[in-house]
Write a structure and sequence with these properties.
Layout (H helix, E strand, L loop, with lengths): L1 H31 L3 E6 L3 E6 L2 E4 L7 E6 L5 E9 L8 H8 L6 E2 L13 E11 L2 E12 L2 E9 L2 H11 L3 E2 L2
Antiparallel strand pairs: 1-2, 2-10, 3-4, 4-5, 5-9, 6-7, 7-8, 8-9
């Protein structure tokens, strides 16, 4: 009888252990599946951001869309969309150097397999700069596709947060 109870106790422990492991896996999966919202840029591009981010539309005096999270942490994404002539010569690195002359601008390595936009030229640069006494880390992406130039700038006071936001770059899609 003692052996029988021991066997039942072992089965119960195995089921309990299995249940705990299953609950941990499910809770981690649920936590890691962040809900996203689709934001449209000029009816040409979509970017997928967490639903707690907001979009500030483009006004007549600014040429970009800005996105920022609801949490009080200085992180921002600015997106510029330009129509350009196909043969227009654009030196993206030189433009950045003019805008941030005291910054050490370095080429950023891209994971080309994650980019959802095909038949395009993509460049990326990372740098930091001072804005009103605050050091900001930035990464600028340039997507050049027939007749369009999309510039996506990621800014944060945290270098780690800037790197984390890069996953949002890989969510950008061209509409038609």
């Amino acid at each position: 009888m003692a052996i029988r109870r021991l066997g039942e106790c072992m089965k119960l422990k195995n089921y309990s252990l299995f249940t705990i492991i299953l609950l941990l896996i499910l809770s981690f999966t649920t936590y890691s599946m962040e809900k996203t919202e689709v934001f449209n840029i000029d009816n040409e591009w979509n970017i997928f951001l967490p639903e707690d981010w907001q979009m500030e539309g483009r006004s007549p005096y600014q040429q970009y869309y800005s996105f920022y999270p609801n949490i009080p942490f200085y992180s921002m994404i600015k997106i510029y969309n330009y129509d350009i002539a196909e043969n227009q010569n654009i030196d993206l690195l030189e433009d950045l150097k003019k805008k941030y002359p005291n910054s050490n601008i370095k080429k950023k390595k891209l994971n080309l397999n994650k980019i959802k936009i095909k038949n395009t030229k993509v460049e990326a640069y990372e740098y930091s700069f001072d804005e009103n006494g605050t050091k900001l880390y930035a990464i600028s992406y340039f997507i050049l596709i027939k007749g369009d130039l999309l510039i996506v700038n990621f800014y944060s006071i945290s270098e780690k947060e800037t790197e984390k936001m890069l996953e949002y770059f890989y969510s950008i899609k061209k509409i038609n």
